[in-house]
Write a sequence for this structure.
């Protein structure tokens, strides 16, 4: 737990700990799936280079659904 909003440095430290834990178990990081936050791409590149970094499908659909609902709400408000 952090007592502040995470920063690139916090994410980098987390990914370094993850990578060290995997290496200690003779495992290799093959990808990191995140929620699309701009916090992740740079630390991921710094720590893991070209590892796959897909965005979570759930989060993509959630953002699309929220956008559609906001547009629908604006349309109803405008035509009311």
């Amino acid at each position: 737990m952090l007592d502040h909003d995470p920063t690139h440095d916090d994410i980098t430290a987390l990914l370094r700990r993850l990578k060290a834990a995997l290496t200690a178990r003779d495992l290799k990081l093959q990808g990191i799936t995140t929620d699309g936050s701009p916090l992740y791409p740079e630390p991921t590149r710094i720590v893991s280079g070209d590892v796959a970094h897909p965005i979570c499908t759930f989060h993509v659909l959630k953002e699309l659904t929220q956008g559609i609902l906001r547009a629908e709400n604006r349309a109803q408000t405008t035509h009311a």
Summary: Residues 8-78 form one domain. Residues 57-78 form the longest helix (22 residues). Helices lie at 8-24, 41-48, 57-78.
